[in-house]
Design a protein that fits this description.
By secondary structure, the chain is mainly alpha-helical. It is built from seven helices and two strands. A hairpin with an 8-residue loop joins strand 1 and strand 2. Helix 5 crosses helix 7. The protein starts with 20 loop residues before the first helix and ends with a helix. The N terminus is likely disordered.
Length: 139
Amino acid sequence: GVSGVAAPRGACCDTGGAMDLEALQIPPPEAIGGIVILLVLAFFGRTNIQARLVFLLTCAAGAVHIRLYAVREYGRVIHEFDPWFNFRATEYLVDNGVYKFFYWFDEMSWYPLGRHIGHTIYPGICYTGAAIYKVLEAV
């Protein structure tokens, strides 16, 4: 306490010294996005145009700074999101199907070792591209 004497365990609340999270009234994670949007709208409703512009430019500069982190840290090298690789992987998926795509060992990736594609990529872009291709092919 203030006088240098520690309060006995559990004296601050009735949970045996543990923090009562329900008493904090923290919103659930799915509500936080809505709360942030409300705060931003409240900010924009009560500020002048210069403050809004500074806020938006700060957000844009922060986004560019975050996006260019890998370029500053590792150089100008295309890493995981190589568009040519994603095109080849999507093409393989369309031509050979999901089962063969999942077990595809690509000798052209990570040369000379090769790469087991089905277990080492996030295939969302390939599945999305293949689905769009199939829909447009059917039209």
